């Protein structure tokens, strides 16, 4: 009986790790569809693309989040949700989208097998927005959830959180954010920096 209880406990722990792996999804902003470019110069007076990308997904049926720019673009030209037949019920920078079917192949969600592109935002700045413009992923106000969310393909449409993650190779971009007009290519000094020593370190 004792051995059976130990075996049950081990199986339970393994099942927990399995579920945790399914839920451990990072979400970030990229300036390319493949989810590999986390800083970019922002052109003025022409179309500029911002992508929200997820990593380590196994499958997806829907997703909810908000793109939160630190300097709002002059104009939102369009928003494209990804999936086989996507429908987006969000407004402006908020996305509350279904993919239009269960997706298990990342090739159906963008350009790179290692990432899943969720949404493309087409924006325009009429004037230079200045340095270190942060494009961050935030929770969807309409969902009431504390984190961005995605739905898996089970019959009950289970919803899991997506956690903003530092996905750039240098670890310098803020969590879940891409940076337009960076102060220095990958050596980004965030707006939250207050000490002069920290500021000097970025130059």
Entry summary:
By secondary structure, this protein is mainly β. The protein has helices spanning 2-23, 196-201; strands at residues 26-30, 39-40, 48-55, 60-69, 75-81, 87-88, 94-103, 115-124, 133-138, 149-151, 159-161, 163-164, 177-180. It is globular and about 50 Å long.
Question: What is the topology?
Answer:
Blueprint: H1 2-23, E1 26-30, E2 39-40, E3 48-55, E4 60-69, E5 75-81, E6 87-88, E7 94-103, E8 115-124, E9 133-138, E10 149-151, E11 159-161, E12 163-164, E13 177-180, H2 196-201
Parallel strand pairs: 1-12, 2-13
Antiparallel strand pairs: 1-3, 3-8, 4-7, 4-9, 4-10, 5-8, 6-7, 9-13, 10-11
Question: How would you describe this protein?
Answer:
This protein is mostly beta strands and 203 residues long. It is 14% helix and 35% strand. It has two helices and 13 strands; from the N terminus they run H-E-E-E-E-E-E-E-E-E-E-E-E-E-H. The strands form two sheets. Strands 2, 4, 6, 7, 9, 10, 11 and 13 form an eight-stranded mixed beta sheet that branches. Strands 5-8-3-1-12 form a five-stranded mixed beta sheet, with no helix packed on it. It is globular, with a radius of gyration of 19 Å. The termini are far apart. 36% of the residues are buried. The model is unreliable at 1-22 and 186-203 (pLDDT under 50).
Distance between the termini: 65 Å
Q: Helical proportion?
A: 10-25%
User: What is the H-and-E element order?
Assistant: HEEEEEEEEEEEEEH
Radius of gyration from CA coordinates: 19 Å
Q: Structural class of the secondary elements?
A: mainly beta
* Unreliable stretches: 1-22, 186-203
What is the number of E strands? 13
Strand content: 35-45%
Number of helices: 2
Mean pLDDT: 79
Major β-sheet annotation: 8 strands, mixed
Shape: globular
């Amino acid at each position: 009986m004792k051995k059976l209880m130990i075996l049950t406990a081990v199986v339970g722990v393994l099942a927990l790790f399995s579920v945790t792996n399914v839920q451990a999804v990072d979400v970030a902003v990229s300036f390319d569809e493949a989810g590999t470019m986390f800083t970019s110069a922002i052109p003025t007076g022409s179309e500029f693309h911002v992508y929200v990308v997820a990593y380590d997904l196994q499958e997806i049926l829907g997703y909810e989040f908000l793109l939160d720019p630190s300097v709002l673009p002059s104009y939102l030209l369009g928003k494209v949700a990804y999936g086989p037949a996507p429908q987006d019920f969000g407004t402006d920078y908020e996305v509350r989208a279904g993919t239009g079917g269960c997706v298990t192949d990342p090739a159906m969600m963008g350009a790179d097998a290692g990432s899943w592109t969720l949404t493309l935002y087409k924006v325009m700045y009429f004037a230079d927005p200045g340095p270190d413009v942060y494009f961050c992923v935030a929770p969807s106000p309409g969902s009431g959830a504390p984190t961005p969310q995605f739905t898996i393909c089970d019959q009950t449409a289970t919803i899991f959180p997506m956690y903003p993650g530092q996905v750039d190779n240098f670890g310098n971009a803020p969590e879940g954010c891409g940076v337009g007009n960076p102060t220095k290519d990958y050596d980004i000094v965030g707006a939250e920096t207050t000490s002069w020593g920290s500021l000097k370190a970025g130059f």
